[in-house]
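A protein record in our archive is deliberately plain, so that people and models can read it alike. The tokens are whole numbers drawn from a learned vocabulary of local backbone shapes. For reference, a complete record is included directly beneath this paragraph.
>
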Amino acid sequence: MANMKNADKYKRGYYMPPEECLDWAKKEYIDHAPSWCSVDLRDGNQALIIPMSLDEKLEFYKKLLEIGFKEIEIGFPAASETEYEFCRTLIENNMIPKDVRIQVLTQSREHIIKKTFEAIKGCDNAIVHLYNSTSVAQREQVFRKSKEEIIEIAVSGAKLCKKYRDEMGMNNVIFEYSPESFTGTEPEFALEICNAVIDVWQPTPEQPVIMNLPVTVEMSLPHVYAQQIEYMCKHLNCRENVIVSLHPHNDRGCGVADSELGLLAGADRIEGTCFGNGERTGNVDIVTLALNMFTHGVDPKLDFSDMPSLVEVYERVTRMNVNMRSPYAGELVFAAFSGSHQDAIAKGMKWREEKNLHQWTVPYLPIDPHDVGREYDGDVIRINSQSGKGGIGFLLQKQYGYTLPKKMAEDFGYAVKSVSDHKHAELQPAEIYDIFKARYLNKTAPCEVTQAHYVQNEDGTITAKITAVNKADNTRTSCEANGNGRLNGVANALKAMLKIDFTLETYEEHALERHSNSEAVSYISVVMNGKTYWGAGRHSDIIVSGVRALVSAINNALS
């Protein structure tokens, strides 16, 4: 049996709260949106191979405002001139709306705190985010300091923040504190250090403080983080004036789950990035988190209705790619290649139309693609060798207006799958339409009816007089025959002219709604020598379209 070596070198580096904290487990879903803070321009930017330029940051900042973020962490202005300049550009050019706060990060060191306040001078709409690391590993290995010394770092930084705010008269600036590496910190100690900072800042309803409890490195299952958050929420000083914030990373691939359970546990706010960019495996993906709420009928208070535009800006300015399978945003997340999936989606769409439903219950699609700016045509149904007749027929109908009879759709489906299998490639809608036209539509070889005239007989029958050209030898022949209708008369004339026998089995027609010139399309199957052949005809005259469909089916039988 294969096994992984060295499992014994790892230990669980997280700590459970000292009391049971399971109230969150009784809740079914998140019933309201949290406060959102985008950290794309700071945490996301510092994780890029090539950090964004000033112009790129400005463009992304404007996009974040458009989406509806009211809090945006714009950088670490004391860390680099680019970040300092970006901060000053926003302030000096009045680019911060009155209902939006920029957030700046600072370590708990006096010269850094001082420069941070200089960077935000003239901006009351700001959050100063103070942090220092508190985990056992950081205390022992990096700082080699006691708990008391770590608390002193946080408290001294909190006092300096308060001092510079007061000296500069920036009364509307609010504070945020992060015990960095919270998930590797004993909950009792995390509570102690957070309460020590709260006691310095003395939050009020008018000037709350943010306690940010980050999953700096993901160490546990999400339910453990939820218990840690619930413990903190129950025991923080001045809880009514404290905004509990989460900043989950995704080292174990559970960033979204951590956030969702943390919100159930009492958190009020989320820091994350669009599409989850960030250090190592990234931050929590705000797009996924927000739209998960949306699929439960909760307005996330962020507007992702033009997802393609957001993806385009994000990929261009960050030089990162949104994965094809990234929830809600990836190129393939609404795509169905499987025949059974395509069939269920097509029937679900038809059901909604028939019932005129507002409620979204389409199989395999947890969200309506239109709600995020995606189209059904080409986005939902994608055609390859695994596709089924339902999906192929759905695409042909949605893109080009043709509604094939059930048996014809099956015949066409096999033809399309064969082409895709031979090419070993996905087929685009135009390619599928080309296959349809070549196989069925208005076929004129080996036989083409160039003229048809009809006489109404006294007994109610129709005499059809036709002229046809045999493309094999370019001979022209005329013939007439009676029938119980025009199409039947043409069929009998063709039998006599071509010396063949067949049975006209299926005839369906409809208006080609996608065309403004009111064309009609007809579908016909004929049975010859025990085998079924299909044809389609299109013309502004329904009689002509029927004749063309009949001739197309006969030509398929003769080919």
